[in-house]
Design a protein that fits this description.
Elements: E1 6-11, H1 16-25, E2 37-42, H2 48-60, E3 66-72, H3 75-78, E4 84-87, H4 103-120, E5 126-129, H5 134-143, E6 153-155, H6 158-172, E7 179-180, E8 183-185, E9 193-195, E10 200-201, E11 204-205, H7 206-209, H8 213-225, H9 227-235, H10 241-256, E12 264-269, E13 281-289, E14 292-295, H11 303-325
Helix pairs in contact: 1-10, 4-5, 5-11, 6-8
This protein binds nicotinamide-adenine-dinucleotide (NAD) and (2S)-2-hydroxybutanedioic acid.
């Protein structure tokens, strides 16, 4: 393992998601089993002791991939030289809350973190925001990092993508590995549009395999879009391991490439594709390679799909206006 370690910053290092994510990273699920990592963990001051406990457990895994662990309550330190920043640390919602209820509480975290990334991260930095509301937090962080290309900031929609595949597999009995080219458009919220128009299930068009518009509109889409809330109701806490799994998969595929013959959903800065207003962080199907993504172009929308797209655009525009009011963008 002669390669220089990749510096991976993780915020909220003592939180629930990080407690799954960090152990996936040191097992090679982020960058492969040959790439050593330096972990740079950020927490708020009162959680530093708990963070030390997490670092002790990382030590006790004796993973050959871990070259060093840096812990700090200062984003300027945690992001110093970071090649990859996984912005997980933020308050989760509780029962009965919408993710957008977190905008004021969590939005304020992402302005100083964006600035610290701008000022201290490596020139090749890639940033993924998991902390909710993830799309608009990404917009905030990006706005405060004017020297970093906007395309380097992405938000987590992979959990929604995975939920889409899982529900289709349950409905059809086809294994998840044979379900390709699903997409989840828009916001990581109840307005998202899980879209199977271009998907295949066991090699057949998904629209033939699931020829049931009533189920798609009234069961499938709400189940996927409201899955986070259903988990909070059932578990009493928001999803953690599935979120960590998706966070690792998103960055893994961005750096090492999306699967051949398939695509992945990522929240990316809109360039105006599909009429999505420029600058919104929007879930889109993408192909990825070597840290770069391309939005899949040329996809068609039904009238129903156009209405779903418009609704999630409207919500993200409202979130952008709300954080503008708060002085965050
Ligand atoms: P958690 O409360 O268990 O952990 C969050 C951690 O972040 C805490 O340890 C806290 O001290 C830390 N933190 C708070 N402010 C910080 C700051 N300014 N800098 C660094 N660390 C800070 O929460 P969790 O279950 O790990 O969830 C984290 C976030 O991820 C929540 O906002 C949750 O809603 C979100 N989430 C997103 C998705 C997604 O698909 N995008 C999925 C699940 C959860
Ligand atoms: C999820 O989708 O599971 C997370 O965003 C947590 C939440 O608040 O729903």
């Amino acid at each position: 393992m002669s390669q220089a370690p990749v510096k991976v910053a993780v915020t909220g290092g003592a939180g629930h998601i990080a407690y799954s994510l960090l152990f996936r990273i040191i097992a090679g699920q982020l960058l492969g089993k040959e790439t050593p990592v330096e972990l740079r963990l950020l927490e708020i001051t009162p959680a530093m002791k708990a963070l030390e406990g997490v670092a002790m457990e990382i030590d006790d895994c004796a993973s050959p991939l871990v070259s060093n662990i840096v812990m700090s309550d200062d984003p300027n330190v945690a992001f110093d030289g970071a090649n990859i920043c996984l912005l997980v640390g933020a308050r989760p919602r509780g029962k009965g809350m919408n993710r957008s209820d977190l905008l004021a509480a969590n939005g304020a975290i992402f302005a100083p973190q964006g600035k610290a990334i701008n000022d201290h991260a490596a020139d090749d930095v890639r940033v993924l925001v998991t902390g909710n509301p993830a799309n608009t937090n990404t917009l905030i962080a990006r706005t405060h990092a004017p020297d970093v290309p906007g395309s380097r900031f992405t938000s987590l929609m992979r959990l929604d993508h995975n939920r889409t595949i899982a529900q289709l597999s349950k409905k059809t009995g086809v294994p998840v590995g044979e379900i390709k080219k699903v997409a989840v458009w828009g916001n990581h919220s109840d307005t998202q549009y899980p879209d199977i128009t271009n998907a295949t299930i066991g090699g057949k068009p998904a629209t033939e395999a699931v020829n049931d518009a009533e189920w798609l509109e009234n069961t499938f889409i709400p189940t996927v879009a409201k899955r986070g809330g259903a988990i909070i109701e059932a578990r009493g806490a928001s999803s953690a391991t599935s979120a960590a799994n998706a966070t690792a998969q998103h960055m893994h595929d961005l750096m090492l490439g999306s699967p051949e013959g398939d695509w992945v959903t990522m929240g990316v800065t809109s360039d105006g594709s599909y009429g999505v207003p420029e600058g919104l962080t929007f879930g889109m199907p993408c192909t990825t390679k070597n840290g770069e993504f391309e939005i899949v172009q040329g996809l068609e929308f039904s009238d129903y799909g156009k209405a779903k797209l418009a609704a999630t655009i409207e919500e993200l525009e409202a979130e952008r206006a709300a954080v503008h009011e708060l002085g965050l963008v």
